[in-house]
Specification:
With 173 residues, the chain is mainly alpha-helical. The protein is built from 9 helices and no strands. It has a single domain, classed as UraD-like (Orthogonal Bundle).
């Protein structure tokens, strides 16, 4: 049996509240986690990812804001809402591109985070996996020029990418 099947079996067999807690590690929107738990059992990993995308497509503005609050700001370690130890570790690995960043870049990201949050009312969210600090700063600066409607869509798409990456981790644990 492959690791993916083991993870899939694990998720499928959990009691509903435990499944929701596992799914919340992937996306901090409680409605998303609930709908994923209700959709079980999944026949395959592909079905999990397809359902995740379907549920994401139905999330409201408030659902997205709830999901964003479950992430630390780029360059920080603590989210606005409580995170499990595992979710904190995932965030740290996803932001590992910041480890080698110059102080000036880290300072610019911190300033950009403040400006972004003041402009849009929520944290700057980007799928940081594989990105350098300089790339994240460039993305942040470009997105600061967006209007509110465009930006919430871009932020939601970044959350969807993060969710898919974390689902893969969950299924492979």
């Amino acid at each position: 049996m492959s690791l993916l099947n083991t993870g899939l079996d694990y998720i499928n067999k959990l009691p509903p509240t435990d499944a929701e807690a596992e799914f919340l590690k992937c996306c901090g929107a409680s409605r998303w986690a609930h709908e994923m738990a209700v959709a079980r059992p999944f026949a395959s990993a592909d079905k999990v990812f397809a359902e995740a995308d379907r549920v994401c497509a139905r999330l409201t503005h408030e659902d997205w804001l709830e999901a964003f609050r479950a992430h630390p700001k780029i360059g920080e370690h603590k989210a606005a809402t409580a995170q499990t130890k595992e979710a904190q570790e995932w965030s740290a690995k996803e932001q590992s591109g910041l480890e080698r960043a110059l102080t000036d870049t880290k300072t610019a990201l911190a300033r950009g985070n403040v400006e972004y949050e003041r402009r849009f009312g929520y944290i700057f969210i980007v799928c940081a996996t594989g990105k350098t600090a300089e790339e994240m700063l460039d993305i942040l600066n470009r997105r600061l020029t967006n209007d509110e409607g465009t930006e919430i869509k871009m932020a939601a798409e970044e959350q969807r990418k993060i969710t898919r990456l974390r689902l893969g981790k969950l299924l492979n644990q």
